[in-house]
Amino acid sequence: MPIHKEMDYTYLTNLLQEFTSISNIDNAWLFKSQGNLGLQGMFSITQPDLLANMRRRFILSCNILKESDNSVKFLWAPFPIEMSGVSMIVPSPSGSKLLVIRNPENEAPSRFEIWSSSQMEKEFHIPQSLHGSVYNDGWFEAVSWNMDETFIAYVAEEPYPAKPTFNDVGYKKGDSTDKDFGSWKGQGDWEEDWGETYAGKRRPALFVININSGEAKAVKGIDKSLSVGQVVWAPFTEGSEQYLVFVGWSSETRKLGMKYCSNRPCALYAVRAPHHDSKSKEQELHSTEEFHTLNLTQTISSALFPRFSPDGKFLVFLSARSAVDSGVHNATNSLHRIDWTDGKLYQSAKIYDIIPVVLCAEDGCFPGLYCMTVHNNPWLSDNCTMIISSVWHSSEVLLSVNVLSGELLHISPADSNFSWNLLMLDGNNIVAISRSPVDVPQIKYGMFNEKAKRNATWGWSNIPSPIFRCSDKVRSLLSSLQCSILKISVKDACDGPTKGATKPFEAIFVSSKTKKKDVFDPLIVILHGGPQDVSLSCFSKSLAFLSSVGYSLLIVNYRGSLGFGEEALQSLPGKVGSQDVNDVLSAIDHVINLGLASPSKITVMGISHGGFLTTHLIGQAPEKFVAAAAINPVCNFALMVGTTDIPDWCYVETFGTIARNCFTKAPSAEDLTLFYSKSPISHASKVKAPTLFLLGSQDLRVPIFDGLQYARALKEKGVEVKIIMFQNDVHALKRPQSEFECFVNIGVWFNKYCK
What we know:
Blueprint: H1 3-20, E1 24-32, E2 39-49, E3 54-66, E4 72-76, E5 81-82, E6 88-91, E7 98-102, E8 110-115, E9 120-126, E10 143-145, E11 151-157, E12 165-167, E13 183-185, E14 204-210, E15 216-218, E16 226-233, E17 243-250, E18 266-272, H2 281-286, E19 294-295, E20 304-308, E21 314-319, H3 321-326, E22 334-339, E23 351-355, E24 385-392, E25 395-402, E26 408-410, E27 419-426, E28 429-436, E29 439-448, E30 458-463, H4 472-479, E31 481-488, E32 505-512, E33 523-527, H5 541-548, E34 552-557, H6 566-570, H7 579-593, E35 602-607, H8 609-620, E36 627-631, H9 637-640, H10 647-655, H11 669-677, E37 691-696, H12 704-717, E38 721-726, H13 736-754
Parallel strand pairs: 33-34, 33-35, 35-36, 36-37, 37-38
Antiparallel strand pairs: 1-2, 2-3, 3-4, 3-5, 6-7, 7-8, 8-9, 10-11, 11-14, 12-13, 14-15, 16-17, 17-18, 18-19, 20-21, 21-22, 22-23, 24-25, 25-26, 27-28, 28-29, 29-30, 31-32, 32-34
Helix pairs in contact: 1-5, 1-13
């Protein structure tokens, strides 16, 4: 390695390590302190550990003091406490108990610990004969205490079926043990899983544990074709039956990839919770009929994140029916309500629309609901107002929603350069996180100004915190950067079939404040995946690193991105490789025409569909880019469709939503021809830009053969190519070492051709 390159590599790795060390808040809770002396906050924090290639989890506590002038102070504990080996922590509703779950390793039992304020009170080991690991994936994941804090419902892997055992003679009857070295266990029947990141994981099933006895039971009456997630306890009165409400995904035929895909049909179901008192077998058999599930949302194709109002009068849920009905993997959400009359279950209960799908909003108006999740406790004290985080164009904002009247208000500050995310509620006050591409995240405390009456507003104050602390060097580099959101006109507006498809899209532009006139930093064009996803105006350690080493960033939310209305989003399927490519080229021309970038120093990078665009752009506009980096890129639909966990995506993006069900058949010769013509590989012969490929060998979404085939085609043509293979990583390349090495190499690669 030449000396200058080695010095460059050393500098970049040292700097990226300073960015990487910044912590993240994963969750937070509020508790009444002992003796009612105010409130205590508990924050779950993660920090990458590069040497161990894992994310370490910490708990940091604070006292929250409210002053007479309505100001708030957070008094932080001097040090965080590491939660080693912990998969999940879930406080009880009253805050008097804490559940700690430790998932098994190497066929060990799951461990459930119940903690009080002073000690661990109980510990239960759940054998793998009952279930495997508890799901903590953020999607199927669900751990829910009942209101009297005697039972906990949760989702875990169903147990593995018995496998055949063989010895030197042949098949061996009876069960073998680990100590029996004269035999081995066979593979048994292969079973489909839910694809990317779920490889080898068993069906998510529902369980309930009695925290007094430690007895855990599978919930009966749930059809084996259902995968279960997002469970909550339904409200109940003393002496009445207790019910569980959960989301169920049917898998009677093929399971398609679930990760990042909200278009999988699902419904809300209710089921009676099992009793943990002793019963005879005759009684158990006699009561089996009572356990059958009830589908609460038969008239709608999607129901997610069920949340009961604090007074138990209604059940609110999010729906991704636009995604399910059209076939795109994500789309505009809607919000709905079911009245929960006296806790009685009605299969034909009326579903009320609270927030409908927005097709095309007027300028400055609410563009539609785009939620990644719904907070576990989103309610203000009136029992009918929810606080929701939602994407609004290129930012995430906080909304208040009255679920009875449908009134919706944008309550976070209007500065679109910042994104806001709900952390927790303190009565009618809000604890949130605010961040921008050039600002380290900041905790904010929001208080409603009741005296303002008609012009009621929320006031926000900064909460100093040690959590997002960064080095002086990082803070100095960030202070030299600026960020803006650009609106870019659509060039092919005449071809748009809908009004929403003709409206401007956006790009986030990050640049130096101190650049000299007519001296341009090299430009990195950054493209998100999906394509039904969005790049938010929020802090990214990796992108902040790239902007801090002398690059301007153009982060494009081309048409088809979330946050701009359903018509704009649905304009892309069937036009990938053309409409999205033209939007990116328009965005590049826009910043050049504004005098913000030089046409001679442009690079491009993206992941997944962003990699698809990256490889399309260097083929369709070969003179425009001096270098490229593609992370697990889609390069050839014709190859991908037979190996991916989302073949439906290949059809919808290539042919349009009319082809959403075509994946069930083998592709025809005509299908394969169109797949090829819409793919970057059809333009590979024109590529000139040196291209870096970063591939996860365990990727089930875009299997590595897709990127390798394209990279080899470029090599054969004499284009400079570098491939880095991450042997133990998946599609997103989110393991700490993978993410670190990925962006260090992108920095070195672009430096080689731009500086």
